[in-house]
Amino acid sequence: MNIIISNSSQEPIYEQIVKQIKNMILRGELAENEMLPSIRSLARDLQISVITTKKAYEELENDGYIVTVQGKGSFVAAQNKELLKEIRLKIVEEKLAEAVDAGRSIELSLDEMQEMLKILYEEV
Amino acid sequence: MAAVLEVKNLTKKFKDFAINDISFTLEKGYIMGFIGPNGAGKSTTIKLIMNLLKKDDGEIKIFGLDNVEYEKEVKNRIGFVFDENYFYEELTVMEMKRVIAPLYKNWNDRVFNKYLKEFSLPAKAKIKELSKGMKMKFSIAVALSHEAELLIMDEPTSGLDPIIRSELLDILTFLIQDENKSVFFSTHITSDLDKIADYITFINNGSIVFSCAKDDILENHGLVKGPKEILDADLRKYFIGLKETQFGFEGLTENRQQVKRILRDRAIIDRPSLDDIMLYYAKEVQHV
């Protein structure tokens, strides 16, 4: 698992961690029940304070992405499959909306765009 | 959570300087950086904690015990690293160890030898032959060899090169993998060790400016840069300090969100470093 922290970013470090772990869970790179590194070892490896990683894990837990078992560690929570699917659908929807905007700006017709989508879909 | 170090209303007066009623608390399992300019009272405070100086008033509790009444017990559980070398220069590393070891109840030779190896310290070299960085590592090896639960360090990084400083950082982060261990260190170089500090206590002119979680400090403060035209009396109130030049102004605020709402995109708001924060607070006091 990769977590990349930027020290020059405007975004607080704990938010960078939360966002990256959330993305890994949503993309399925971190599976249900998979164990996360401990708060202290994550802090050591990223060379940041324990409080920062603790705050990140607390937020992930509040949002239902992970569960922490006292004395055992933190694990990826069992995801609500319906909700997960909805989130993923929303991502697709957003990307398509972007494509529609880009297409409209050069006056592509719906037919032309459908044709394009069809080719791309069958290609991959 | 349990406090390992509790300083309450600590006061110590000298002829021309005083520690004024300072208070702060370090919880178990965390690292606290004690920062401030030279002469702010960092070493005096540490000497008071170690009972090397007698306080005038206030309370110091370590592991929940009074630091004077239970001095012996408390010191057995503390690892102390000084800025200056307090070992006998003419003794070798091993000879020095034999002098120190009996002073501690829980001395562990196996642990000490492990650190000697890890830090590549020459056992047969005389203390005076060690470089500054080596001496510091030797102090740390001693401090860690009696199962100390709290490591107190006075200016451990001063005079050390960035490579040794980074090694020290690794040692400390490794140490607090054990959540029962805590670290308290003073420094006036805020750039490297502060990466890993959980809490920052800032002392200036004998008084505590703040003592809070580092993340909160860095999040709430903002370094604002913009054109001088927008600086009116209302806006000035938000700044701890301001620098004005012919090209614009730069100022530190502790209310970053508020200032952002007021200024929107008329100014740039950067994340300040602890150095920036220390600079502005220290200057402000001088001006008043």
Bulk shape of chain A: elongated
The main pleated sheet of chain B reads as:
6 strands, mixed
Spatial strand sequence of the major β-sheet of chain B: 6-7-8-3-9-10
Q: Beta fraction of the residues of chain A?
A: 5-15%
Rg from alpha-carbon coordinates of chain A: 19 Å
Count every beta strand of chain B, where a strand is a DSSP E run of 2 or more residues.
Answer: 14
Share of β-strand residues of chain B? 25-35%
**Low-confidence parts of chain A lasting 5 or more residues at pLDDT below 50?**
none
On the 0 to 100 scale, the average pLDDT of chain A is: 89
The secondary structure category of chain A is mainly alpha
Greatest chain-chain contact: A-B, 15 and 20 residues
Contiguous low-pLDDT stretches of chain B (5 residues minimum) are none
Would you state the CATH class of the largest domain in chain A? Mainly Alpha
Separation, N- and C-terminal Cα atoms of chain A: 26 Å
Explain what you see.
The complex is a heterodimer of chains A (124) and B (288). Chain A is mainly α. Chain A folds into two domains: 13-76, Winged helix-like DNA-binding domain superfamily/Winged helix DNA-binding domain (Arc Repressor Mutant, subunit A); 81-122. Chain A has helices at 13-26, 39-46, 50-62, 81-105, 110-123; strands at 66-69, 73-76. In chain A, strands 1-2 form a two-stranded antiparallel sheet. The two termini of chain A are 26 Å apart. Chain B has ten helices and 14 strands. Chain B starts with a strand and ends with a helix. The interface between A and B is medium-sized, with 15 and 20 residues.
Topology of helices and strands:
The complex is a heterodimer of chains A (124) and B (288).
Chain A lengths: L12 H14 L12 H8 L3 H13 L3 E4 L3 E4 L4 H25 L4 H14 L1
Antiparallel strand pairs in A: 1-2
Chain B lengths: L2 E11 L4 E10 L3 E5 L6 H8 L7 E6 L2 E2 L4 H6 L1 E4 L11 H8 L8 H10 L13 H13 L5 E5 L7 H14 L6 E6 L11 E6 L2 E7 H7 L1 E5 L6 H4 L2 E7 L2 E6 L2 H8 L4 E3 L3 H14 L1
